[in-house]
User: Which sequence fits this backbone?
């Protein structure tokens, strides 16, 4: 029988929970609706909890309130993915309820659990039932009811778990997506694993941590490291400019011209302006052509071969003389009104976002959702007094949004759910304009782009009447299953059908695709889209063979 929750027991509960979720993270991941190799819920919940476990293992705070505060703060900063952010909100609400308490009774813990649910619901703009929110709400309500009849923490947690188990089973009926896949909610399952770990701690049981599978490694090398020599940079001049239109000449002709003399071409236009980024060996010709559309407002031309040489020299100098323990500064004094932070994975995409104006790029994506702290560090290191963040993945948006309360800088999160949306948004940016104007323009820009991602099935699965086999190509349109097939030709056909009305299609090919394979896929897709302009860019991203933007 356990009637009082003190700091030591609370810390034991959190450490137990971290160990339990880590040991079952892959089991939670297996509940993902689409069998894409994305880590997702189990991995994100585990990494979020482990951040708190590490802090508490350094030494237990003297009071329960202090222990809850340390836990909530560590989880907030370490939150990864939507599931990790929601989990951190559940603990943040608990922390507020337990503030200034030396110990807590059974009823007070139940009330704190309930306060955590309220905090999570308030923070989620459109709460969806049949998720971790539902399971935690019903389990916490059961805890409050049980606390009216008992003072025993163990009995209270048992009652909460019993109701939570039923709620988890019902998620498959509440959520249409889960019903199609025939699985329960992954986040809800993770929450119940946490409650069972709490119960084990109350009974004096210690759950041994199981070494988690290592996360996909972050690539620390320079964005120019993908070029072995300067000769590998076939189009050495990164050329960017903005044209003020003064005639009705079709921008399609400019796109055709750019694709004929360079690569990595991206063109955005509206009624007044044309914004261009291209790699070429003839920047003079590009600018001459640009002048036929209007007057040049801004021009930037950089020699990537020179940058490559400079970066190599800096690396050699740093390797020879820099003290290995020297760390990057945590903060940077603002030197301009506005800057942009973007999230992406892949050397090519990283270089592209820098070239398009991102001050800081956070390495992360589908298999390695960056934490709130990772994004916050980039915000603090950026030059702007106000910072626009482009998450470029729907599972990173909430983690980015948590930065707003952790820095003195104004943080605006544009909810870009894909790399194509992120590129469209940053092309619409003008750092000379106020943050609010940029926000409106960028939100409008992401509406105009369709995003398709092509990856592989990580395991056998069944969804919406489709039998998916491990290793098949998977195409997702705006995150929804478009097709699964063994044939790249069939895949190209399905993609072409989905974007048949597009005028401009950009293909970003990943690190597992050779240039020859990318050219072949582009040619196949181009043959099916004779009216569209196609561009092919080496994105270097992991997990996804192709990220496809259609406008």
Assistant:
């Amino acid at each position: 029988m356990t009637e009082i929750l003190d700091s030591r027991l609370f810390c034991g509960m959190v450490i137990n929970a971290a160990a339990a979720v880590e040991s079952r993270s892959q089991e939670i991941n297996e509940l993902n609706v689409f069998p894409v190799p994305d880590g997702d819920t189990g991995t994100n919940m585990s990494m979020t909890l482990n951040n708190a476990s590490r802090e508490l293992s350094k030494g237990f705070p003297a009071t329960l309130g202090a222990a809850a505060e340390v836990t909530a703060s560590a989880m907030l900063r370490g939150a990864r993915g939507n599931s990790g952010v929601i989990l951190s909100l559940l603990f943040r609400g608990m922390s507020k309820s337990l503030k200034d308490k030396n110990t807590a009774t059974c009823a007070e813990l139940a009330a704190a659990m309930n306060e955590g649910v309220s905090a999570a619901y308030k923070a989620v703009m459109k709460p969806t039932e049949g998720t971790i929110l539902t399971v935690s709400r019903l389990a916490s309500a059961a805890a409050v009811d049980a606390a009216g009849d008992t003072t025993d923490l163990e009995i209270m947690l048992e009652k909460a778990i019993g109701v939570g188990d039923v709620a988890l089973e019902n998620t498959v009926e509440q959520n249409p997506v889960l019903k199609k896949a025939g699985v329960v909610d992954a986040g809800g399952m993770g929450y119940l694993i946490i409650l069972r770990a709490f119960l084990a701690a109350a009974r004096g049981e210690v759950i041994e941590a199981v070494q988690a599978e290592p996360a996909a490694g972050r690539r620390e090398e320079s964005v120019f490291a993908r070029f072995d020599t300067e000769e590998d940079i076939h189009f050495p001049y990164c050329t960017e400019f903005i044209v003020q239109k003064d005639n009705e000449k079709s921008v399609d002709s400019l796109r055709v011209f750019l694709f004929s003399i360079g690569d990595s071409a991206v063109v955005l236009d509206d009624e007044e302006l044309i914004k261009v980024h291209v790699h070429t060996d003839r920047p003079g010709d590009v600018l001459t052509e640009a002048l036929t559309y209007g007057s040049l407002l801004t021009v930037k031309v950089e020699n990537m071969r020179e940058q490559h040489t400079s970066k190599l020299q800096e690396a050699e100098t740093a390797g020879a003389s820099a003290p290995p323990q020297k760390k990057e500064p945590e903060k940077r004094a603002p030197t301009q009104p506005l800057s942009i932070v973007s999230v992406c994975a892949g050397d090519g995409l990283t270089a592209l976002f820098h070239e398009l104006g991102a001050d800081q790029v956070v390495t992360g994506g589908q298999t390695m959702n960056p934490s709130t702290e990772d994004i916050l560090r980039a915000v603090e290191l950026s030059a702007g007094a106000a910072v626009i963040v482009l998450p470029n993945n729907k599972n990173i948006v909430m983690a980015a949004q948590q930065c707003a309360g952790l820095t003195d800088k104004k943080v605006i999160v544009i909810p870009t759910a894909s790399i194509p949306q992120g590129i469209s948004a940053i092309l619409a940016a003008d750092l000379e304009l106020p943050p609010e104007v940029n926000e409106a323009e960028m939100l409008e820009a992401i509406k105009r782009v369709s995003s398709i991602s092509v990856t592989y099935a990580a395991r056998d699965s069944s969804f919406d009447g489709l039998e998916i086999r491990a290793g098949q190509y998977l195409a997702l349109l705006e995150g929804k299953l478009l097709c699964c097939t063994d044939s790249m030709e069939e895949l190209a056909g399905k993609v072409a059908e989905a974007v048949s009305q597009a005028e401009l299609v950009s293909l970003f090919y990943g690190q597992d695709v050779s240039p020859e394979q990318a050219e072949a896929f582009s040619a196949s897709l181009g043959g099916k889209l004779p009216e569209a302009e196609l561009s092919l860019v080496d994105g270097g991203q992991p997990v996804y063979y192709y990220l496809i933007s259609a406008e």
Remarks:
- The first strand starts at residue 237 and ends at 245.
- Residues 17 and 197 are 5 Å apart (CA to CA).
